[in-house]
Amino acid sequence: MKKIYILMGVASILFSCNKLDEKPTSVIVKEQFFKTQADAVAGVTAVYGELVSDGTEQPLYGREINFLTDMTTDDLSAGPSAINPNVRALSSITYTTTNDRVQVLWRQLYTGISRANVAIDQIPTISFDPATRTRLVLEAKFLRALFYFDLVRLWGDVPLVLHDPTSTDLNSLKTNRSPAADVYKQIIADLTDAQSLPATYTGADIGRATAGAAKTLLLKVYLTQKDWTNAVAKAKEIINGPYGYGLVTNYGDLFNKATKNGKEHIFSAQFDSNGGLGNSSVLMGAAFTGFGVSVPADIPADSSVYKQFSANDTRRAVTFYTSLTNPSTGVVKVYPTFYFGKYVDRTVLLTSNQSGINFPVLRYADVLLMYSEALNELSGATADAYSGINQVRNRANTGDLTPGLSQAAFRDSLYAERRREFVQEAQRWFDLARTGKLVEAVSKVATKTNVSAKNYLFPIPQSEISINAGLTQNTGYTN
Amino acid sequence: MEIYLHAKFLYLFRTFKVFKQSAILLLILVPFAAFSQTGSQSVINSKLYGKVVDATNKQPIPGVVVRIKGTTHAVATNTDGEFNFVTGQKFPYTLLVSFIGYDKVELIANGSPVQIELKPAINQLTDVVVVGYGTQKKSDITGSISSVPKENLNQVSSSVDNLLRGAAPGVNVTQSSGQPGASASIRIRGGNSITGGNEPLYVIDGFPVYNDNASVSTGSGSGAGVNALSTINPSDIESIEILKDASATAIYGSRGANGVILISTKKGRKGTSDVSYGAYYGQQRITKTLPLLDATQWANLRNDILASTGQAPSFTADQIAALGKGSDWQDAAFRHAPVQNHELSFTGGDERSRFAISGNYFNQDGIVLNTNFKRYSLRANYERDISSKFKIGLNSTTSYSTSTGAATNTGSASLSSPNLITNIITTSPVVPIKDQSGNYNLVNPYTSVPSNPINDLLSVINKTNINRSLGNFYGEYTLLPGLKAKVSLGADLLSTKQNYFAGPNTANGYAVVGIASVGNATVNTWLNENTLTYDKVINDKHFINILAGYTTQKSTGEAATAGSKNFVSSATTYNSLQSGSQTSTPTSSAYSWALNSYLARINYSFLHKYNFTVSGRADGSSRFGAGNKWGYFPSAGFSWNAADEDFIKNVKSISSLKLRLSAGETGNQEIGQYQSLATLSPVNYDFNSVLITGFAANRLSNPDLKWEKTKQYDAGVDLGLLDNRINLTLDAYYKKTNDLLLSIPIPLSTGYSTSLQNIGSVQNKGLEVGINTENISGGAFTWKTSLVYALNRNKVLSLGASQTSFFPAVPNSTLGILQPVNIKVGLPLGTFWGYKTAGIFQSAAEIASSPTLDTKANTKPGDRKYVDVNGDGLITAADKTNLGSSQPKFTGSFTNSFSYRHVDLLVFFQGAYGNKIYNALRQQLEITNLSTNAYASIADRWTPTNPSNDVARATNSPVAQMSDRYIENGSYLRLKNVVLGYTFNGELLNKIRAKQLRIYVSAQNLATITKYKGYDPEVNSFEQNNTSQGIDFGAYPNYKTFLVGLNVTF
């Protein structure tokens, strides 16, 4: 009998030691991370990752930013196959505080900021090669500035969050809006630091933020703030600096995966097909998996966007397509009208979300046009002002701008040039907003006459206000 | 006591530490040593011979225990009902004779031999039922426990969950698809949880199993999930008890909130030795096909769509006239499919051991071409009394099942992506099935990829193979009279391999020149249970039963997938991934969880009249935050057998009456692993076309995460009338789940969207009625009826302070963007949300004067009209409203069984009322476009000459809107099962030396009354997904079965 006692005792004890602590072996836990150089690199990679991937939605530079910055302008409209009514509302400028695309972009920008905050706070606590460590922190600062610059332009005053939360208590997670001036101060501080980034990279580091990228973004910030003096100075630093920037001869090479990261690409959201991160922005072109089934989700707002190009403008055939070839069957499909083509990767049309074409966030043509614009605002249409815009025009085979224009006429020509140059590059709304021409330009489109002064800012997502009553709404939007 | 023993075990363990390695071996060997030490015999005084027979038919009853009162001397009857007893006593003495299903007999034996007649028990309250960690007299039970009737267990099914349909009030079973071996979703008294699991806990011979179909999915397969329970042979099941209220389930603590299903498998009986063979063979066919456009209608539609954008027609009148009906793809894909089952079992026992051994072969072809489910299983149950005090036993089953499924990828975005079931439906009827030389035609001018859905069905390989071994081994020792200690060790070893191959001639494989993948998943679960039970009767008045125990369970899972594309040859299919020139990203994962528990229960009964149960369990789970690992789950129950009171005894018509009350708290730990931790996910980036892996946190950690707790109150009545010819069970309950684990939205400015917190609550309240009547009995003709009725009302009470509603993610992007389901305070879970429709715009004037969804310029006569619910003159998202819930208002079943001499007949109806189904398949089929077929209703579409107020005009791919048009009434009444049997009589049996022989014919799903327009109202495209129930997005259709069967026992 004693033996049985013993046995039962042994049996019960054998299994009684199960530990209840969770030690995951297939996932990494935050507390175990940011201990090594590799962790630091991976943490910064994740900040870049926000540019091109999102678990559930189209990523930031995979059509999401275009919803707010192109779909709401005289360039783009929602096509008949755009299922989401929120997309249609942006297209018809009837979006409200509950628009899900507005909320998604807000989320994506803050997600990127959060990852950058973690990197900026954590990386200095790891000991490894100081040069690399400094570089990684500056890359994160560049990206944080990029995200905040979009936020402050789209929404005005926004919550300025610079550190990761330390608790899940709801009250501690709430942050109210900071004045736009404070947000700009932070952006300029981050970019000023980021100017110490390397001028160039080699190998698999190509594509990281550079000193030139920081300066270009800073130039854009000054231009947006109408700080023409600083803008001109910054543009000169880029144009005359040791960065090797220049315009590529063939405009189409800007949107070709074989010629990505060329001398004109200052900073791009990097995509790759087949095993890499493909850009779902193929949706901006067409629903290619069903050739001939439907028209694309994004279509030209009206013919004005097409007609602004002269016949000899080499940009027109890159910006639009009217036919495509099925790469499997070789059948050419001709469309009854023109659609947007910059991100349509002709080699992977049959597989959705696989465009390997980079999205140019900052490119040298923009520097030249900003340089011309700032000079014109500062001292009129000088020869230097002409030199920038003319380089861009000549590359497009449209010849020099009419000489001797007044400051106002030069300004108009420059704005028109920017529209032609940057179709579908998430520039149009920002340009219209900062130049005060949003209502005037957009209301010309028959389906967009709802545009009004309130549209100079987007509504704070209603879901944010529901959680934090301390957030105020932008003028003209009712909750 | 429990703690003291535990300390003692600990001491012993330290003493025997050196033997730890071989402890299990010891455990097996030493009982035999113990056996050899016992075996002394008592002094012979008197011998007693006798026979036990059934009082009604005078047939001998084997396996009856005859005991002498006041001693431990007992024997069992042999196959002829005879017993032979060396008593050690002098005459006269009192014999106690008891057997399950018969009234207990107490008689005085004055001499040998004796004949004892046992009367079949009529009063159900005297039965013994299985409860958590033991058995209990039915009369003493305080909780709400339903036993599944034998008739339900005899149904033909690939898995046990399908047997529960209509079997007991409060158990709602919805099968997710008609694919052989596919899963069912089960809700006992409604769903408690929003993000956690809502499936009940299964306890198979004492081994708790949560039926998570994810455990047999690697990610490599494609299609309806394989049911983890289909690995268990349903014919091995002896009985199923369903524990519903807290008094019954609290002993399962953190896993009890969704109800518990106790499954006991067949055991051998003393003094018998039976060989049984059972088999059936049947044919299955589809219950219904969908009405679709024929070729002529489709060609006309295509011309109309082209005309809507001013394009030229693609078919001339002559061409259309020549088309006729065209291809019937459904007819080509569906077939009459055979199903067969064979089972051989050996059961028996002698004085000291009982055994049941069985083997099973089940083979079911699906009604869709090239789909199948096969199972080979073995079971061995063995029990031996090593001595009068020590008993050991083993319950084990091993099975291999293999499932060949149609790839129905519900996660894919559109109907035209590789979902074979929807491909069958959507392929244009003008496309021929076979070409002129009789081969499958691969040319379809309306798709970008040349393929043929029938060829896909036949050539795509989509296989799941599952090995499962489930068993436990136990020893039980009587320490003192009435005090028993039981130790059991169990294991559930589940391993799955999934194989997928789609060749270059298939829709999925075309663009990538063949795609193959394989996946492996293993889930191993270990269990150790240690219980002490103490039974004591004081003065024949106070009946006390005490249970205390400690259990610990640990589970580890691992999975991996690999795949490649671009194959030169299809000959190697998935067996040579290295032959593909392009590899897919491989995946692997692992997890583990552990649960340590202390449990205790006290049953006290005074004269079997006033009964009390108090139980409690403390569970420590690895899944919760560091500060909240332990949860405590108490319950209390009371029942009163009022019929034993004098004032009711005098009421002749009342033969039994019991009132029950219970209250308690149970939990839910099914939230997945690692939810309290801030885990990082890979977030990659291509630096100059080189993919680099980054990591970012998905969420904030929440060390305060704790259990969802469900408080449940139950009041019940069990009433027997007219000598228990009418039995009525009535239960009313109220359940409130608090601390719901919810992903609540947090400010996006934090960089995170949600945080999993214990916020929110849901309530369920309901009423359950079970009525069993013997309408005609006693003669050659008998007729019994049983009626089951249950209603449950579910309501979300709170979703935390920051929100009152949210749209849960639907695991499909096409449907997800429509946000079909809204979880809203005040409404039931599974509420569909969308626009109300108001017919079709007939004129431009009507458009001008009505609010429109799209701009007025874009709206044309023939477009659908929506109701401006909030009256603001616009159709916006604010006009979306409650369109009904996927939860039924009530469910029920109605069974009649008749017998006349040797013939028996069972007719079983079952149904649900008031539930809504979102027919997303029909919605997709009404999106007219130039390439895929449409629902037949489209033939009657609006045209200027056919001013339909029901079907919109033909346009190219109109935008889908969530509206009441596609929310359909899911109520149904189904003739689920009809069985006609014949049991042979003595003469033939003697000739073939059989004890029993019965043959039967049966029809299942013979008729269904429903208004639902899809294949079948029992549908759940998203299977166990909690928040997406009642959505039909192209599931494998249901079928009816006709079969013949035979059971013979030798």
Layout of strands and helices, then pairs:
The complex is a heterodimer of chains A (479) and B (1050).
Chain A: H1 2-14, E1 28-29, H2 37-52, H3 60-69, E2 76-78, H4 85-91, H5 100-122, H6 130-155, E3 158-159, E4 177-178, H7 180-194, H8 211-224, H9 228-240, E5 265-269, E6 298-300, H10 304-307, H11 316-319, E7 320-325, E8 332-340, E9 359-363, H12 364-379, H13 383-395, H14 407-421, H15 428-434, H16 438-442, H17 462-467
Helix pairs in contact in A: 2-5, 2-6, 3-5, 5-6, 6-7, 7-8, 8-9, 8-12, 9-12, 12-13, 12-14
Chain B: H1 2-15, H2 23-37, E1 47-54, E2 65-68, E3 74-76, E4 82-86, E5 93-98, E6 105-109, E7 114-118, E8 128-131, E9 134-137, E10 145-147, H3 150-153, E11 171-175, E12 184-188, E13 201-204, E14 207-210, E15 237-243, H4 246-249, E16 260-265, E17 272-286, H5 295-308, H6 317-323, H7 329-333, E18 337-349, E19 353-365, E20 372-385, E21 390-404, H8 420-426, H9 453-459, E22 461-480, E23 483-502, E24 515-538, E25 542-567, E26 580-583, E27 587-606, E28 610-621, E29 630-641, H10 646-649, E30 654-668, E31 679-687, E32 690-697, E33 708-721, E34 726-738, E35 741-745, E36 754-758, E37 761-776, E38 781-798, E39 805-806, H11 813-816, E40 821-824, E41 831-834, E42 837-840, H12 844-849, E43 864-866, E44 881-885, E45 890-900, E46 903-913, E47 916-918, H13 920-925, E48 967-969, E49 972-983, H14 986-992, E50 996-1010, E51 1039-1049
Parallel strand pairs in B: 1-7, 13-16
Antiparallel strand pairs in B: 1-4, 2-3, 2-5, 5-6, 8-9, 10-15, 11-12, 13-14, 15-16, 17-18, 17-51, 18-19, 19-20, 20-21, 21-22, 22-23, 23-24, 24-25, 25-26, 25-27, 27-28, 28-29, 29-30, 30-33, 31-32, 33-34, 34-37, 35-36, 37-38, 38-45, 39-40, 40-41, 41-44, 42-43, 45-46, 46-49, 47-48, 49-50, 50-51
Description:
Chain A: Residues 65-223 form the SusD-like N-terminal domain. Chain A: It comes from Mucilaginibacter dorajii. Chain A: Pfam families: SusD-like_3 (PF14322), SusD_RagB (PF07980). The complex is a heterodimer of chains A (479) and B (1050). Chain A is mostly helical and 479 residues long. Among the domains of chain A are: 34-194 and 456-471, Serine Threonine Protein Phosphatase 5, Tetratricopeptide repeat (Alpha Horseshoe), CATH 1.25.40; 280-357, no CATH class. Chain A contains 17 helices and nine strands. Chain A has helices at residues 2-14, 37-52, 60-69, 85-91, 100-122, 130-155, 180-194, 211-224, 228-240, 304-307, 316-319, 364-379, 383-395, 407-421, 428-434, 438-442, 462-467; strands at 28-29, 76-78, 158-159, 177-178, 265-269, 298-300, 320-325, 332-340, 359-363. Chain A has a two-stranded antiparallel sheet. In chain A, helix 5 (100-122) packs antiparallel against helix 6 (130-155). The relative contact order of chain A is 0.13. The model of chain A is unreliable at 284-293 (pLDDT under 50). By secondary structure, chain B is mostly beta strands. Among the domains of chain B are: 1-37, no CATH class; 126-265, Beta Complex (Ferric Hydroxamate Uptake Protein, Chain A, domain 1), CATH 2.170.130.10; 834-885, no CATH class. Chain B is 10% helix and 45% strand. Chain B has 14 helices and 51 strands. Chain B has a 22-stranded antiparallel beta barrel. In chain B, strand 35 and strand 36 (754-758) form a beta hairpin. In chain B, helix 5 runs antiparallel to helix 6 (317-323). The longest helix of chain B is centred in the N-terminal third of the chain and has 15 residues, at 23-37. Chain B is globular, with a radius of gyration of 32 Å. Mean pLDDT of chain B is 84; it is low at 1-44 and 409-418. At the A-B interface, helix 1, strand 1, helix 2, helix 5 and strand 3 of A face helix 1, helix 2, strand 23, strand 24 and strand 25 of B. Strand 1 of chain A pairs antiparallel with strand 31 of chain B.
